[in-house]
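$ run holo --ligand "pyridoxal-5'-phosphate" --emit tokens
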Amino acid sequence: MTDAAAPTAPVDVFAKVRGHEREEQLKMAREAGLLPYFHVQESAALPVVVMEGAERVQLGSNNYLGLTSDPRVVAAAHAAIDAYGTGLTGSRLLNGTIPPHLELEHEIAAWMGTEDAMVFTTGHQANVGTLGTILSPGDTVIADSGDHASILDGCLLSRANLRPFRHNRIGKLEQQLQRAANDGGGVLVVVDGVFSMEGDIAPLREISELCAKHGARLMVDEAHGAGVLGARGAGTAELLGVEDRVDLRMGTFSKSLASCGGFIAGASDVVDYLRISSRSFLFTASGVPAAVGAALAALRIVRSDEGPPLLRAVLDNARYLRDGLEALGYAVVQPQALPEGAPGGATDVVTPIVPVLVGDDWKAVLLWRALFDGGVFVNTALHPAVPPSGALLRTSVMATHTREHLDRALDVFGRVKREFEAEHGPLPGPGAHGA
Ligand SMILES: Cc1ncc(COP(=O)(O)O)c(C=O)c1O
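-- output --
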């Protein structure tokens, strides 16, 4: 009941939840059984999973090294629960730090080759808590338009001047660096190492050179690069030989490291500052023992002699799936050329994210459904997650997919394409990506 005399809000703050732009579309998709989101996985995160009562080849996870069910990782999570319980009920600052947090920070710093590292409860919080703290309102942050949402959230939270540049356009980055020099504050460039939807990598050599030339600091989000790229699996910066030119390296445990949590690695004075000032670190409960124990065990596997074969396996699988999809006539990305003299002598790379361009949103969900019914799960990215008419099916592989799993998925992709095109007309073909 409102008091007639009291000033009242002109609109109900909940009004936006009714009749919004996407409501009708969502309703139609749900009624037609075409909603590609919120499907329930009823088994462990393996290369083949049970979803809604049937087996599906899992081409929609970020479990790149397949370590979520590795017996050593599972045992480490159990051991951490036995030793420290199910939760810590407090911030890292107060009662939420246990020895595995410190061991993990120490090992991440050694892995990244940085002076220090700190562990956050999620990767999202690592980005928000780093960018929102290290940037101030007078500073400028220059971000790639394809950067992850958590990077944008951190930039907005900081209230620094935000100067975006078009995805991977080095010329546009340089323009923004020139403009930023007159903004009057410090300048930070922040990019994904591997972009989460397209799977392409940032040209970190050129980016780091430009940062040095214009006196800007560089932060790289290695969520999809760490545990995947480089001889040590230390990410895109390692692959491209620019580790010493990246000031801050962010990563997550929710992909190759088979757990949940995030980190930032860099110089000890910067990390120490974040430890006492980062609000998403200080004002939230610390990562639970099972999550930290699992991430530590997974990291130890990556850094052991078993790491390199696992990294090779996931990259080989990515190339096999990409080539297979292209041979079937799908629009997939081309292998990305590496600069001359990249460590290890590789000339190009296919990351574990292999997007299939569809274009039209409805075609993408129809194709998703046909694949799902055929026994393959993939992720669907529709506008606004991708540009208009840029709908794509995001496939991703694990080191533990066998050729049999991938062939099974490719068979389904082949059959579905023939049936789909007979009914709905042609899908974009090879070469359409990036056109
Ligand atoms: C590029 C990128 N950065 C950050 C994150 C956030 O990581 P987390 O899942 O640990 O919150 C993700 C995960 O979705 C990501 O893809």
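-- notes --
The chain has two domains: 21-68+306-424, 70-303.
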